[in-house]
Amino acid sequence: MLSRTADSLFWLGRYTERAANVARGLNVAWRLDGLGTGEEWHRILVASGCEPGFMEKHGEVTPEAVVDFLVRDPDNSSGILSCFAAARSNARQVRTALTVDMWSGLNESWAQFRNSSPDDFQGERLPEFLDRVRERVLLFNGAAQDTMLRGEAFLFVQLGTALERADNTARILDVKHDMLTPGSNGTVEFAQWQAILQSVSALRAYHWIFRERLVPARIAELLILRPELPRSLVACHSRVTEVLEMIAVGQGGRRGECHRLSGEITASLRYCKLSDILEGGLHEWLTRMIGRTAQLGGAIEDFYIRGG
Amino acid sequence: MGSAFNEMGEGPEHSAAYAEVARWLAATPPEELAAKRAEAEYLFRKVGITFAVYGEGGDPERLIPFDIIPRVLARAEWDRLAQGLSQRVRALNAFLADVYGAKEILRAGRIPESLVLRNEQFRPEMEGFAPPGGVYTHIAGIDLVRTGPDDFYVLEDNCRTPSGVSYMLENREAMLRLFPRLFSRHRIAPVGRYPEELLETLKAAAPERAGPDPTVAILTPGHFNSAYYEHCFLADEMGVEVVEGADLCVENDVVHMRTTAGPRRVDVIYRRIDDDYLDPRAFRPDSMLGVPGLMAAYKAGNVALANAPGCGIADDKAIYPYVPEMIRFYLGEKPRLANVPTFLCEREDDRAHVLSRLDELVVKLAQGSGGYGMLIGPHATREQREEFAARIRANPSHYIAQPTLALSTVPTLCGDAVAPRHVDLRPFVLSTRDQVRIVPGGLTRVALREGSLVVNSSQGGGTKDTWVLEEEGGPPAQSQSQTQSQGYISC
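Predict the joint structure of the above. Result:
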């Protein structure tokens, strides 16, 4: 496959996933805003990595400004509409590598969202809007899963999706790391834990797996170490390693630094103990993990796209 | 300009080919047609079949308006056209081989030498080089207009990078979805094999050393190009890569594309980039779109280019009047398709005639396309005609003129009424060393504005599906879908 095509497919996977992740984050902020913790809108800015850009532009955190920045603002390249536009632009450049269902699903999402005005997503309209964003991304992922030929094109989209998802789970956890420190317990904390789990569609999963009430350490275990949960760090990184391996096999065993690094990250997640993570500090551990995930993204591009 | 020929026929007297369409139009209320048109637009938006217009403001991704009433040709009409098209393209290829080779037609004095050798479209780089297979214009688009039941004219030849074939294919897809019942009442020659035939044509152009399964790629200027959708569409349908200049590199006169598994050799390039931008080392040095060293690789015989560089000399408007002469000279045949009488303003007699009849003629740039920079005498104001007269006097060789033809009309949905609108037809002609292939039909372009004769999409033109009706009656048999058998399987 053309390197340029692989690049577009990889980022197509990343941007569609990012749009849904921003929507998930905003949804949490919206729910918790009602509980009056006051911190939620700021936290979501941090989680999405958009805080510096936001502060430069707005200076002060208000719900409307945060929502506008994360949904519509074309100056924010990680905003939902920007993500759809970037995903579509990547898709358009590799139209030939996509199926009609993927393209038309994405193209229609873009057509629906591109002219969104504040009336469509501010205030009471927000949850419905965010649901629609998540649905459109689910549709796209489903179309990819259902219709794409199992070749390299499929694998590069999967690679982008899995890597972006790993990044998102680590960020969501990091923003709430203080709430996951053992010992805290109260109504507000309980709502926070629920929100973390909901943001990665894992509230039900928690009850299925642990069959007990919400406990901070268990939540961290679920989101970091449980392979059954598709958005856990270990599941996302296992998928990255698996996909990289499939690409390598398809190319007669051609491997590079990205394969080694991905294997190392996945192994460390598979075989580490939660107590070790908590002992050194969850925040410190997550910061390292976010850095290594970014490093892995760079190594993938070096090897397959810039031809290292 | 007299009244135009209506292809469907007037009043109760319909042409046989349009019988069913006329019945359908009479039986369908206008609201229903308008609803179908809206559905068609939705379909095209959904598939993303747009053409890009940059630098004019507004939405850069536009839909070419699609008219849902098909244009119908009888098989016998089409067969006559196809023979004429095949003949014409064979002569154009022979002409290209000759002017870049022995130049016999010039030595025989049948075409003025200066018209060819001093033409900007003549590429001295191609002299003395024979492309693989001896074909120059592998894909040609010939624009035809009609003025009466048996009167077809070639308006212009497009031998370089003709576009529009994706619309021919997508228009048919849309019609099949919108009007399955209308289809079942006709036997229509299919167009869907075009991509296969294009791929076979391109593979046949490969250098011999490439073997039986050459690697083909489409070279596009990129997504800012107005026909980018088409480049991707064709690549997709053929299962080949669509590459940009930056995806290709030339080493030791061999062309490779950069892939995730390292460099891969390319044997045939269907290039949709103009000659000027193809290779900054051979042509315009400032081209960012091309591939440095591509021409050297081509001339070393390591890669085939379709169409060959230098094809522009065959479709130049100043050369156009001589195409019938080419047919007689190279094929020894009588031209089957007529040319529109054409006056070359650089000839003194012609120029005097043109300047005295500006109110009757169409004046065009000798090297222009897209319907830009043209004067339609009968529709122009006095000021516009005077301005053109001055331009012609200043640069006579830049202009040609033709009589204003009464282009035929086809019923078209305008607003919520059906009205006649002028059309042309661009069939696509594929050539290999020993074969010329034409998918029945082509792209019908329609001038949507009342009275307008300009069908170009950049000037408010639309498109229609073009049907070539097979003669034997009865709808084609459809195969039944399989169902589970009711009985038990006997062991």
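The interface with chain B takes residues 1-6, 92-93, 95-96, 100, 103-104, 107-108, 111, 152, 156, 247, 251, 254, 304-305, 307 of chain A (CB under 8 Å).
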